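Lecture 7 notes: from sequence to structure.
We start with the chain below.
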Amino acid sequence: MPQIPFKVHELSVGQLSARSGAAVSALHFYESKGLIGSTRTAGNQRRYTRETLRRVAFIRAAQRVGIPLAVIRDALAELPDERTPTREDWARLSEVWRTELDERIKQLVELRDHLTDCIGCGCLSLSRCALSNPDDSLGQQGPGARRLRVDRRATDPVPAPEKRAGTGTGRPGERS
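Predicted structure tokens for the same chain:
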């Protein structure tokens, strides 16, 4: 990992990319979403403060555990004066995110367990398959249709035949 001299206080996007491990395109994307900020030189080149390294590390760590960027952005926005997140900030936020992650893990375990059932039977039955028909209350009544299907053709008025040029009245089999 390239070292940046301590006397350098602003980093180019290439330096930030090399030091953080994030692609330049990812850094531009983070900036477009308001996760990080930069200033511009007279030549219109982006410059990032050294503290941006910690913000990028924070963002990437949160992403690795499955936190959506919108949630990360909201968490960073809560920090006073958009300061760099501290270890205490991470501890506080990770505690909140832990509950959400635990719920997702629980859902994934249930999904995995039902997937094994479906692979075992191979039917993907609409009457009992938790993957193709989750929380089906009608399926508890057994296989087959459970609601009366109304034939709309029997209740709708008969549409008038269309008259097309050169076909007479529009009745089948009739020509002009």
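Points to note: The first helix runs from residue 13 to 20. The first strand starts at residue 10 and ends at 11.
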